[in-house]
Amino acid sequence: MTTPPGIPPHIIGLARALEVLTSAQRTLGARMSHDLDLPRATIGLLLHLSRAGSTQVGCLAQHLKVDTSVASRHVSALVAAGLVERTVADDDRRGRSVGLTDAGRAKVTQLFARLTTDLSAAFAGWDPADLDTAAAAVIAVADAINRIDAPAAASALPGADGAAGPLPTPDQKDHA
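^ DNA-binding MarR family transcriptional regulator, sequence as received from the core. Prediction below:
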């Protein structure tokens, strides 16, 4: 691999580690997607809805860091599958929110069970304190990357730091 001159080795090592982590995440997502008959791109959307509850498509797009049209396509696929539903706001008929259906909550329960089973198997030999340290390091790295071009105004919004936080259990909701 050719790297530009002057780049510190620790930055090159971090870039490589992120590449490896991204590949592992895609592998895990593809496995869950296949086993649960669910488009891989919608997994994050379902997990977010399980934490946040009913949310507008624009907020989903912002959280997932995708264009609103991309989030809308994912929502449409999940609506067609019966996993989410769109609702119209009572106070503003133009506002539409997306929330999990009963089938969607059941799918999130399956998704969460599969994810935790896979992660438990992958990290069976790890000390719990080492797992806590690794999780904190991954979150710190993600936070640092998310701050690269984040506008100052966005950092004042709740949850705008991009931190995913701990994985929710299917019955937990983060309304912060």
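Residues 110 and 146 are 30 Å apart (CA to CA).
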